[in-house]
Every structure is written in C-alpha cells, then in structure tokens.
Write a structure and sequence with these properties.
It is built from seven helices and ten strands. The protein has 244 residues and is of the alpha+beta class. Strands 4-5-6-9-8-7 form a six-stranded antiparallel beta sheet.
Amino acid sequence: MPIDTSTPIPIYYQIKQEILERINKGDLKPGDRIESEEKLAKRYEISRMTARHAVTQLVTDGQLYRVHGKGTFVCKPRVEKSVATLTSFADDMKKKGYETHSDVISMTKMYPDEDVQEILNLKAEEEVFCLVRVRYANKEAMSYQKSYLPVKMFPNLDHHDFINHGLYETASKEYGIDPIQAKQRMEARTTSGAIAKHLQLDEGSPIFFVERITYSDNNRPMELAYSWHRGDKYIFEMKLYRES
C-alpha cells in the first residue's frame, strides 16, 4: 500500500496498517523478523521517528515483539477467551487446535488460611488440596495456576494425573462433580519472581491475574483458583449490554 500524503490519515497509521495486512495475509508469519525502523524509514521516505511510532503501535497491540539486539518479530496469535462462559484451560486451547499439557509444580494437602476457608465454606479443621501447575499450549507456557479444592469433596485427588488431564475433567469423571457457575475477578498486573520464571517472561512483563470461585450443584464452592495468564498470549473478550 503506497503512502498517501494527501489524506488526513496519519502516515504512521498507514504504515502500521500495511504491516498488519502483510501479517494477516501470511506474508509475514509468526517468528519472522520485520524490517528495521531505519529500513522502513528509507523505503517510505519518512523519518525514523514515524517508522518507530508505527512499529511501537503494533508492539503495543500484541502483533509484534522486540528482542534487544536482534530486532522486531511477528507474534504468535493470541488466545481469545470469553469471560461470559465457564470453560477450562484445556477446552479453550483444544478449540484453537492446540495440544495441551501441564507441569505439576506441587500437590499439597494442607489446612487453608481463613480467607480460603471462608470462600470454600470450610471449617477450621477441614483440609484442602493445593494444586500448582504451569499450563502449556503447543509446548509453550501460557498460564501459572494455583487451585484450592476441599478434601471432603475430592478425597485422594492427589492420586490423579494432572499432567495430561484437566481438573474439571477429573472432577466430572472420577467424582461426578461438574462446574455449574463461577464468580471471577480480573486484574492487569506485572509478573516477577517464580511466576515470571515459570512463564518464561522477563521481570515486569504484563500478565492477566484472575481469581475464580467455581461452584458445583446446590451452589457449593468446589474450587478457588488463582491464575496468572501471559499478557502477550491472551485477549479476554466480553459482551456488554445496555441497561434498559
């Protein structure tokens, strides 16, 4: 697409749209390196600042990513997840055609703190399983998850395989307990420490933090889960309706 200087559309935006069109057509594939800002500036006969603005916009939009000393590359497609439906990680990934597995970091039987007790409606003497996993799609780390589940609902849960099988799948097949509804809270955060390491991210990288309380039949809380989703891999989508 040639640059049109007679239109009110900013030049940086025209360049951005041309690069985006090449990505959408498949001319630029995930992992491909794009031209340097200097080469873009020469090709379009514009300033490097304008070229940098176009590239930065695509980085911000999650279409490109920069590697220090190496250049700017095309991102892999991000997973679009609806927040209006109750689905598992495995279900979301399989709908996209991705192969999934998990690394189980730990599975511990413990007495929960007061906050977890209250959320899961437990007595002080009742234990929970704490399952910590890193979730993968096509061998790429996507999410770090910590789940608390009542031992009284899921006895011997620590005997099951959560590397190749999902939690909701196991709850349904082995215990006859299905998730019916959930309450969810989301925050934009930055990652650090062990979570950054497990997700293969630099310190300070953007993530989506999600707290979810899942309920089975009769409004029984069956799981409290904390999830840290990679900001460069996820797009959360919701439908909004105007109040009448």
